[in-house]
Structure formats: structure tokens, C-alpha cells
Specification:
Helices cover about 45% and strands about 10% of the residues. With about 475 residues, it is α+β, with helices and mostly antiparallel strands. α2 crosses α6 (about 170-185).
């Protein structure tokens, strides 16, 4: 292949599968052994890995390819793979001229089906393709790239995980880490197939990946004036979680949006990371261990008979991560947590302004109201929290704030809330009254902690309250 063709093997295309394969090729081309070798030699090497070291176990990616075809045995799988790709290079395979559906180049186009392009149509499913073609029309470079995908991904649970991000360094880091692990395992004779991630829950795995990249990729984040990490640019991470296996193909797209990534990056700051991790880890759930209790000191789940460390529970579902990906509010979880544990309000504030789009002036006014409440005796504070917890509509919350305002005015003080603040910041058309309520409760607990005031009140944990914000 000439230089322009070689670029099509590695240039970013926007297709997550093709780009993964391109980064695998880049990884090998950086090594002295493969730097100047023909791509067909690398294809033959990779086919050998799949067949001889992995036992042809790439069925979750390719259906009835030369490697996974049951009628081919042993070395025949490798020979047929090389024969197929050589036919693309020397144009003996059937082709038509046109524009590649992925790279956009005008070139010879070949058929892409489930045997060589994951999650596409094939054979009996020609309705997947334009003009009822037998497959998607792709250049030979793209088909070459796709063949390398298994070496650059991980199996997460029962399916394969491909990472795609608008920040190229993230995608590249994921692929290169997998390549390095595969090379190490092959060198030690341990490589037996597509890498398996130790976290099988895809949502948990996505956040685990994000945390590691925040720490490991210097170009991803910078420090603000208070030494909190913030992304240098808006960053979105996608996990394409799929299987192309036989008659049961499946695919799910999990997206970590830019606002969630910014907030999550903030939570990895050294000043708040421990509190954040404790809050998150206390929200893992497993029905098998429904009666287990989370220990803040050890960060283990205790059953009375055994102590379960992070490696034991990291695959359990996590309500915090689920809510972040699904756009559901965390404020009730924060409120329930802060009645017994410290959680720096700066975390709450960052969450509200970054993800919930709450005006900073709204947060400031809530804190001001909390100061008013905590300025009273403990009995008044507890009764106020109990009343707020019982509010089931905006009217009840407005009534409480109006009464505080009136009581404060009778005492000859300045109004707690002026009309403009009431209308624009607390109860505007875009505000969520139940979030205002929960954040006010959180702020009262936070300021009570600061004054070492113990509140004799327990928040309600019935399903009605906990689900109020799920669709907000």
C-alpha cells in the first residue's frame, strides 16, 4: 500500500469499531519489529494469535469469519484469513467502485457483513443496507482495521466493550492499554482470548475507566485556583457494549455526558475524593446481601459473618452511577446520606450547578435560609427538618419559607427572601421545588455539623419520596 492508503488504516474515521482497529495498528507500527513490515504480515500474525493462542475465540465479534468458521480447522483458519485479505489487496475479490461508507474515500468497495464488520446485517438481513445490498460497502482499509478490533477491546460481563470519545486521547489510551496487556499475557503464555475486565457491570466499569484516565492522562484536565481538577475541554465518553454472537446479537450504548464527566472529574480532587468514594461505595446494592451494612471506617460491607471488600462488591449495581447516567437526580440520596455523614457541601454545589443547571444565586439563597434555621435552638431545627421532609408539594415548601420571612420581619430584621429572589431563584418556572427542599435539608444538616448540633430526626425513606426526582 502507498502512503495515502496507509493513512486510511490509522486516521480517525468517526466509526468506533474502525478507530479501535486503527489504534491497534498504530500500536504495532510503533514497535521496531513491525514498523516497516507489510500490513499483510501483521494480519497473518494477528490471525495466528486469534487461532493458536485464543483458540479462535472471537465469536462475540465476528460471525462465521475465516477465523470463527467451524468448517475451517487449525492452520487452515490462518491460511484462509490471509487468502481473503490478499484478495482484497490484489482486487481478485468482487468489488465495485464508489465511496466507502466509513472513510468517504472513492475506491474499490467490498462487502461488509457480520463476518467482518461487527453488528452489521448479512445474508438474510439485506434490509440493513442501502439498495438491499448484500452488505455495507467498505474499503479494504476499513476491513483490515476491523480485523484488529478484538486485540484492542475488553470483555465486560458477557459482552464486549468498545470505548469511543470526542477526546482522542481517551480512545487511544483504552486501546493501547489493552494491547499492552495482551502482549504481556501472550509473552507469559497466559493469553487465552479477548481481555476480561474485572468489573462486569458496564456502568460501574465506565466510571472506573473514567477515574483512571482522569489520573493518568495529563492533557485531559487542569487544576483550578482551588486545586480541583477540571476538564480542559468538554469531554464525552461512550461505551459501546455489544455481542455479535450467533443468533443473539445485542448492543447497548452507555454515555458519560460532558457535564457528568466534569462533575465526576471534580470529585476525583484530593480534597473531596475520600468523602465522594465513601458516598458512592455505600450505594452499591446486591439482593444477596440485602442485610449487609456499609462500614465507613473500612469501606467494606459487613454481613456479621463476613467482610466484603471493594473487589467483592465493585460489580454490584450502584444507584449513584445509575442515576448519573440516566439523568436522575442525586439530591435525595445526598439528603439521606448527610443526616448521618459529612459530605462537603462543595460537592453538592458543584453537582447542582454543573448537572442540574441550578443558578449559583439559588444555591447561595438556600445556604442563607439554612443559616437562619440553624440560628435557632436544636428543637426548632429538628422540627423544621421534619416539616421539610414531609413537604409533598411546592405549596407546603412555599408556606414554610413565607412563615420564616414573616417571623423574621416581625423581629424587625431584613427580609430573608425578597420578591425577586423568590420568583427568579427559588420558585422560577425552571426550578424543581423538591430539589430545593432536599438541598435545603442538606444545607441545614451541613451547618448543624459545623456547629456540632445533633438533630434528633430521621428522614423518610419511602418510595414516594425517593422517586419524586427520578424523571425531573
Amino acid at each position: 500500500m502507498n502512503q495515502s492508503q496507509t493513512n486510511y488504516l490509522t486516521n480517525n474515521s468517526g466509526d468506533p469499531f474502525a478507530d479501535t482497529g486503527g489504534y491497534v495498528i498504530q500500536f504495532f507500527q510503533k514497535q521496531v519489529k513491525w514498523k516497516d513490515k507489510p500490513i499483510l504480515d501483521l494480519l497473518e500474525y494477528m490471525a495466528g494469535v486469534y487461532v493458536n493462542q485464543w483458540g479462535a475465540g472471537i465469536n462475540a465479534l465476528f460471525l462465521n469469519s475465516q477465523v470463527t468458521q467451524a468448517s475451517f480447522k487449525g492452520e487452515q483458519k490462518i491460511a484462509e484469513t490471509v487468502k481473503y485479505f490478499r484478495s482484497l489487496f490484489d482486487s481478485t475479490a468482487p468489488f465495485e467502485m464508489g465511496y466507502c461508507r466509513i472513510t468517504g474515500q472513492f475506491t474499490q468497495l467490498f462487502k461488509g457483513g457480520r463476518e467482518n464488520y461487527m453488528m452489521s446485517g448479512s445474508g438474510a438481513f439485506i434490509n440493513f443496507h442501502h439498495s438491499f445490498d448484500e452488505g455495507i460497502r467498505l474499503s479494504k482499509e476499513v476491513l483490515v482495521r476491523l480485523f484488529f478490533v478484538p486485540f484492542g477491546v475488553r470483555q465486560i460481563g458477557g459482552m464486549v466493550g468498545v470505548i469511543s470519545s470526542n477526546h482522542e486521547l481517551i480512545t487511544q489510551k483504552y486501546v493501547e492499554e489493552n494491547c499492552q496487556k495482551n502482549i504481556a499475557e501472550l509473552g507469559s503464555g497466559m493469553g487465552a482470548g479477548v481481555l476480561k475486565h474485572d468489573i462486569g457491570n458496564p456502568t460501574n466499569a465506565l466510571f472506573e475507566f473514567a477515574a483512571s484516565w482522569i489520573r493518568q492522562i495529563p492533557a485531559l484536565c487542569k487544576q483550578d485556583d482551588n486545586e480541583f481538577p477540571i476538564p480542559k475541554e468538554q469531554t464525552t465518553i461512550n461505551l459501546i457494549h455489544f455481542t455479535n454472537f450467533a443468533a443473539a446479537p445485542d448492543i447497548q450504548l452507555l454515555t458519560l455526558p460532558a457535564d457528568v464527566f466534569e462533575f465526576y472529574t471534580f470529585c476525583q480532587g484530593i480534597k473531596v475524593r475520600k468523602q465522594w468514594n465513601q458516598f458512592v461505595r455505600a450505594h452499591h446494592r446486591n439482593t444477596k446481601y440485602a442485610k449487609a451494612k456499609f462500614s465507613l471506617e473500612t469501606e467494606n460491607w459487613e454481613t456479621g459473618k463476613e467482610s466484603l471488600g471493594y473487589d467483592d462488591y465493585k460489580n454490584w449495581r450502584n444507584q449513584v452511577f445509575d442515576n448519573l447516567l440516566q439523568g436522575k437526580s442525586l439530591t435525595r440520596l445526598f439528603a439521606n446520606w448527610t443526616q448521618h455523614h459529612r459530605l462537603d457541601f462543595i460537592i453538592i454545589s458543584k453537582y447542582l450547578t454543573t448537572i442540574r443547571n441550578m443558578d449559583k444565586r439559588t444555591v447561595e439563597k438556600i445556604l442563607f435560609l439554612a443559616d437562619f434555621v440553624v440560628g435557632h435552638d436544636p428543637d426548632f431545627i429538628s422540627k423544621t427538618v421534619r416539616y421539610l421532609d414531609g413537604c409533598r408539594n411546592a405549596f407546603s415548601l412555599r408556606r414554610a419559607i413565607s412563615k420564616w420571612n414573616a417571623d423574621n420581619a416581625k423581629a424587625g430584621n431584613e427580609p430573608l427572601v425578597r420578591v425577586e429572589e423568590y420568583v427568579n431563584y427559588l420558585f422560577s418556572d425552571s426550578s424543581n421545588w423538591s430539589e430545593i427542599r432536599d438541598v435545603l435539608i442538606i444545607a441545614i444538616y451541613e451547618k448543624s455539623y459545623d456547629k456540632k448540633i445533633r438533630l434528633e430526626v430521621e428522614l423518610t425513606e419511602d418510595e414516594t419520596i425517593n422517586s419524586e426526582l427520578e424523571n425531573s
